[in-house]
Amino acid sequence: MAAITASMVGELRAKTDAPMMECKKALTEANGDMEKAEELLRIKLGSKAAKAGSRITAEGVVAASIQGSTGALLEVNCETDFVTKNDSFLALANAAAELVAKNKPADVAALAALPYSQDGFGPTLEDVRRGLIGKIGENMSFRRFKAFSGSNKLVSYLHGTRIGVVVEYEGDETAAKDVAMHIAAMKPVALASSEVPAALIEKERTVATAKAAESGKPAEIAAKMIEGSVQKYLKEVSLLNQPFVKNDKQTVEQMLKAANTTVKGFTLYVVGEGIEKKADDFAAEVAAQVAAAKQAA
Question: Is 244 helix (H, G, I), strand (E, B) or coil?
Answer without folding.
Answer: strand
